[in-house]
Amino acid sequence: MTRELPAPARETALARTLEQLAPTRVGQRFGLAAIRSLADFRASVPIFDRDRHEREVETPLGFGVIDDAEAGAMSLAAAARERDEVLAVWRARLGNTAIARVASLHAHGADPLAERTLRDDVRALGGELLHLDRLDDAARVLERLRAFDPELLVVPSALTCTWLQRVQRAPLTRLLPGVRAVLCQHDLDRDSGHGVAMHSVGWFFRGLRCGLPSLRAPVDAITLAVGSQLLELLPYGNPEDDGRRVYADRTILPEQARLGHRYEIVVSSPLGLLRLRSEQHVRVVGFDPPTASVPLPRVRVVRLSTPPGDVALEGCTVAGAWLTASVRQALAREDPALVAAEIGADPQSLDWRPGLESSSSRLGDGFGETELTLRTAPRDRPGRPRALLCRIELQGFVRSELARKLAARIDENLRARSPAYAWLRQRDELALPRVIVLPAGTAASEQQRRVTELAGAVWTPDVRVLG
Question: How confident is the model at residue 365, as a pLDDT?
Fold first, then answer.
């Protein structure tokens, strides 16, 4: 095992986590009171995925050891520990000049502690703060912003600015002439000509500041907040190469990361997180210099969209990377262009039996119905689904027979990639995938809904796998 290097901030984060959790039922079960070092902690406490963490940690704790509204919550979240580093980056990005007016567009309630932390960060910049928590009437929002004349705009996603521009078909520099820069957490790599500098606010996860903005490229890079949080990295292979994600059997510490490699962030916190696999994925792009509290290279990363999940069918599990590739490759050059797609298990195939034909059709179901449909599938029937369902939106004229052709091409592609899938299809134990072509504008409507929620990321991959 690689030797662990001392880091005062990390030891402090571990001590505070153990102090808070050791007296609880969870702490007693995992022997947290007997842990004396980070090495002991990593050796004796298992890594939890989301479902197991909810079942074995959050539920016994009552969904956390402290309520978000309690006075001590901000202290346990270590919200202020690396605020000076955040402000130093922002001021450098803004030219080290004073900011008189800041406008913030964020919905209330999505992550209360993160909202309070970000608001305190922005207030520390100085100047008057205007906070808007709704975007249901874009014209009214623009009217209020113009009257306030902000110099700095803080939004959840870079695409929030894109949507505001589309309302009046004018660039942000014309809509809000006084704006010098925009700060956002999500979709920085989707900047589409706002004419205003876009900078990162960092990254927040379940009330914790887990990433700091960085002065170094690329624009969406963040530096992991190892000075305030107890973070580990779980290595895994490239799903595009391996087909399925292959995880290592143990984590590494952030300073041990390798340039260009991919990792899932593992988080522990006095707020009630215990070696939780966050489902947040990153790729290492460099290292930032050490600080007084972190006398080690601080890893700089870019966040990745969650790798596509695997889909369990009757008799086999199909890798998510294979599913996304099969949808993209099913479209020939002469076919309409792909706008967006979702693929996953078909709940209707629970009733399918060998010899029955799997139908393809063109229906008006929206993307938003997909997860709901899967959740409400009958649970009292034995077995797993026996077919895949692909909802796809295309740009251009769609011929009536295209859905059936796409189903056959997806099926052929998956047979070539997965011997297990091919064997079950040959034995007629799995049905042909079902393809539904969605009405034009479905993906745009979903993106607009995400923008107006003012709660997080907007952009999603053009092909999404529903596990």
Answer: 46
What stretch of H or E contains 91?
Answer: helix 83-93
Q: What is the maximum alpha-carbon separation in the chain? A: 72
Residue 158's Cβ-count burial label (10 Å; 0-12, 13-18, 19+) is buried
Residue 229 CB neighbours (<10 A): 25
Burial (CB < 10 A; 0-12, 13-18, 19+), residue 90, is: buried
**How many C-alpha atoms does 51 have within 13 Å on its Cβ side?**
0
SS3 assignment, position 254: helix
Residue-level pLDDT at 193:
67
pLDDT given for residue 376 in this prediction: 42
H or E segment and range at residue 210? strand 208-213
d(CA 273, CA 53): 8
Tokens in use for 187? 């979709």
Q: How many CB atoms lie within 10 A of CB 53?
A: 21
Q: Count the Cβ atoms, other than its own, within 10 Å of residue 428.
A: 12
> Roughly how many angstroms between the first and final C-alpha of the chain, as a whole number?
34
Give every residue of the chain whose pLDDT is below 70, as ranges. Answer: 1-7, 64-69, 71, 191-194, 239-244, 352-382
DSSP string spanning 117-153? Answer: HHHHHHHHT-SEEEEE---S-HHHHHHHHHHH--SEE
Residue that has been written with the tokens 């099913």 in this structure: 330
Strands (E) in 369-433, as ranges, are 388-395
> What Å distances lie between residue 432 and 106, 157, 411, CA to CA?
44, 39, 7
Task: Return the pLDDT at 68.
Answer: 64
| 72-to-100, 108, 109, 326 alpha-carbon distances in Å | 31, 20, 18, 50
- What pLDDT score does 354 carry? 65
Q: What is the pLDDT of residue 233?
A: 98
